[in-house]
Input
Amino acid sequence: MSSMVVDTLDNDDTTSTVGAMQLFLESCYSAEIKDLLDDENTSSLAVDLGKVIEFNVELAQTILDRATFCLPLFNVALVSALRKLTGTTASSMDGARVHVEHLPNHPALQRTKMPGSEDIGHLLTISGTVIRTGMVKMMETQKRYACLKCRGTFIVRAQLEQYNYIPKPARCLAPGEDYCNSNAFAPVEGMDALEARLCCTDYQEIKIQEQVGRLALGTIPRSIVVILEADLVDILKSGDSALVTGTLVRRWRGEGACDRPDIALALYATSVSAGTSGGSLVSITNDFKLSFRSFWQTHASAPMRGRDIIVASMCPQVYGLFYIKLAVLLILIGGVARADSSGLRVRGEAHLLLVGDPGTAKSQFLKYAAKLIPRSVLTTGIGSTSAGLTVTAVRDGAEWQLEAGALVLADRGICCIDEFGSIRDAEKGTVLEAMEQQSISVAKAGIVCKLNARCSVLAAMNPKSKYDLESSLAINTALSSPLLSRFDLILVMLDSPNEKWDNRVSSFIIDGQNMDDEEHPVWQFDELQAYIAYVKTSIHPVSTPDSERVLTKYYQIQRQRDSANASRTTIRLLESLIRLSQAHARLMFRDKVLVQDAVIAVVLMETTMLSASILGFANDALRTTFPEDSQNFYQDLETLVLQRLDISN
Output
């Protein structure tokens, strides 16, 4: 820590603390310390605080309570241990650092909300999302002065609390029996290579924000600046889910004598790590895993009945809409991403567009999906700009920083965009790269980089005017063909008068409960959320020859039809069918894609084709109810699909 390095060890408390730390390092990390000498690229040692607790509880408690005092001493202890184990006194080891990580899993130490002033000086671990990253800069940590009177030299260190400002000393601080108290001194020029390396370090500031999925409705997420130094810089990128361990400090800038300084909190990091998947935010207990296996064992003879129970748990406050609930659930689960040796990656995340009249529960599905997936962003197309959806270049003082937009913040999750048709035409093109390549290329304010946007897009919009079944999707939605082809499914929800359907929906709304609640039990929200996270991370289905035959035949027939919609029947149609069949196999809790999964993928795709449908029965996605006998309903569906595809056996 720049302003917290201990110069001398004349204090008894300091000496005993360093001795205890050195004894711990020599006892538990002797092999790792010796490896530091062989690795020229690494000068830091990661220390597990759990091992410190096992070795010396009092030392661990001191580190937690007085992190500002103890963490610099850990660096001193590491240098002493290096010299003792190697038997040398080389000054090249002076830059060694200790990174403390893996704090105990206690609410006071592991935080999901930003800390306050009462936590200043404490060691904490904060989880959040990186929303802004600054440029990596070189920072001067100390400056050597020479006294013009006694000719002695002394070091003045940068003050972390004052934004690494190196103050000019008021009097001579050169070591000796008596201070000369001179105020005439000059900085020393011409340092040797070792001292020049020690007095400068890499420096970066980033900003992390509370994860929106863990906040109560209506709560504005707070953020905090994280200070990174040395080998911790350039690890995290905008949009990453970060786990940062560090000390909470105060910072202020020097003001005039009568001005009140503006004090801000910051986290001085001692270790950082980037999260991998949004599913890790969901607690999947062993009880959940056992209940999932027991559920499918119970429904082994009628698996479609078990599937419909899970589908009915999706947005249960909306009546019916069987195919739409199934489609949204498959989009949330997603397919399996694959990459070849050349680096070409085919996305596993699926995209869905809901096109429908007002009052058809489009926004309800978006809100429920955003609640189900921990890493989600819910935004609206009205007023959204390309920078708000992708990346914004923000000026911070004399430099520019990148601030993540909605698609970047939803990395490894889902981005829900309501009123998608209200986005200006110039802004719609910004999501093309994010939807297919799953990344966003940035060239703003002299910054050229590429950020990950590996998320599913769930969008909803109204048709341009009254939906015309005889016209193509591009005309009815006023969206370009490249954008339409990127959506795996486009479900059209037309609200035309129907006396029987209107009576059932009105009865459901007035009663305020599911009329078939006893006959169709549903899962609780936490159980459904855990199931989606579990199948996404644990099940990776592979295709079978029979399923491939069904998907290929359907794709070929759609390509040959004269009335086919050109924006939908591209090679992306086949990739979408593969993703949907993989997602259905995951939903069915199996690791192979069977004909059953391929048939469901074809049926869902038929609801997109409308006038280009080859089955000719699933063109009203709004009025689809749950079948009374799921197993027989599927058998009839499979027979019809295979007959229309001219596939026997």
Observations:
- Residues 1-10 have pLDDT under 50 and may be disordered.
